[in-house]
Amino acid sequence: MRLGILSDVHANYEALSAVVEAFKQEDIDAFYCLGDTVGYGGSPNECADLVRATCKATVLGNHDAAVAGRMDYSYYYEAARQALDLHAKWLSRDNMDWLKALPYQIMLDAAGVQLCHGSPVRLEEFEYIFAPEQARECLPMYDRLAPLTLIGHSHLCKVFALTSTTVEELPPVDFDLEAGKKYICSVGSVGQPRDYDNRASYILYDSDRKIFEFKRVEYDIETAADKVLRARLERNFAHRLFIGV
Q1: In the 3-class helix/strand/coil scheme, how is the chain assigned residue by residue?
Q2: How many CA atoms are closer than 13 Å to the CA of 55, on its beta-carbon side?
Q3: What's the distance, CA 101 to chain centroid?
Q4: Of the candidates 35, 13, 7, the residue with the CA atom closest to the CA atom of residue 226
């Protein structure tokens, strides 16, 4: 089975559209989204509509949870809270109902894949995994981990190979899964990359051949940034798109 996985769209329709177009060039059996369709950007409804139309299933991200009233986000910084409040007002009833019903995780048993937004340890806490010490928190649940756990949240491309007692960080490049190891992979962000590469990030995974591929695609950043500014959201949400941070 060939899976197309995307995450952290953050209401960036131009980036999402470019990824969907890129997927059309691949032989994909099913598409999945790892959450945070909303937040930061200027096109929450358009992105929710396209994710719903494209992806077989989507997991709940922290920004999704905030907009849907499923978590307390009072501790978020002011500009982020403002965007979430506005998106909650802008979303259609169908898209809001969709966010309210999203699961915290999806298990693709036939493919040996677990999908969640943040760490699988405490799903509702949306904890980050972008360093080996954070991945080590998964070792006590090693036997319950899928061969491959795919996450978003950090907006970074990261790979961690686990045994029952060790964690090794690998370069974020294409790789083959090895027998006897389990992997936690952060797939990067479609709509707001933070690794100084401003191209939209997504991944492909072939569960039969055990091959994992990182992908990037350019998109119309100028239009996406202009929508942020026209919506009177935090100006830095627009500026950071150009530098990928």
Answers
A1: CEEEEECCCCCCHHHHHHHHHHHCCCCCCEEEECCCCCCCCCCHHHHHHHHHHHCCEECCCHHHHHHCCCCCCCCCCHHHHHHHHHHHHHCCHHHHHHHHHCCCEEEEHHHCEEEECCCCCCHHHCCCCCCHHHHHHHHHHHHHCCCEEEECCCCCEEEEEECCCCEEEECCCCEECCCCCEEEEEECCCCCCCCCCCCEEEEEEECCCCEEEEEEECCCHHHHHHHHHHCCCCHHHHHHHHHCC
A2: 26
A3: 17
A4: 13
Residue 165, phi then psi, degrees to nearest 5: -130, -5
Domains of the chain: 2-243 (3.60.21.10)
Mean pLDDT of the chain: 97
d(CA 147, CA 160): 12
Residues 119-164 pLDDT 10s: 999 999 999 999 999 999 999 999 999 999 999 999 999 999 999 9
| Residue 218 confidence (pLDDT) | 98
Instruction: Pick left, alpha or beta for residue 210 (phi over 0 → left; psi -120 to 50 → alpha; otherwise beta).
Output: left
Contact 242, 198 (CB under 8 A): yes
Averaged pLDDT, 85-95: 98
Report the predicted TM-score, pTM, of the whole model to 2 decimal places. 0.97
Q: What is the pLDDT of residues 208-236, one digit of tens each?
A: 999 999 999 999 999 999 999 999 999 99
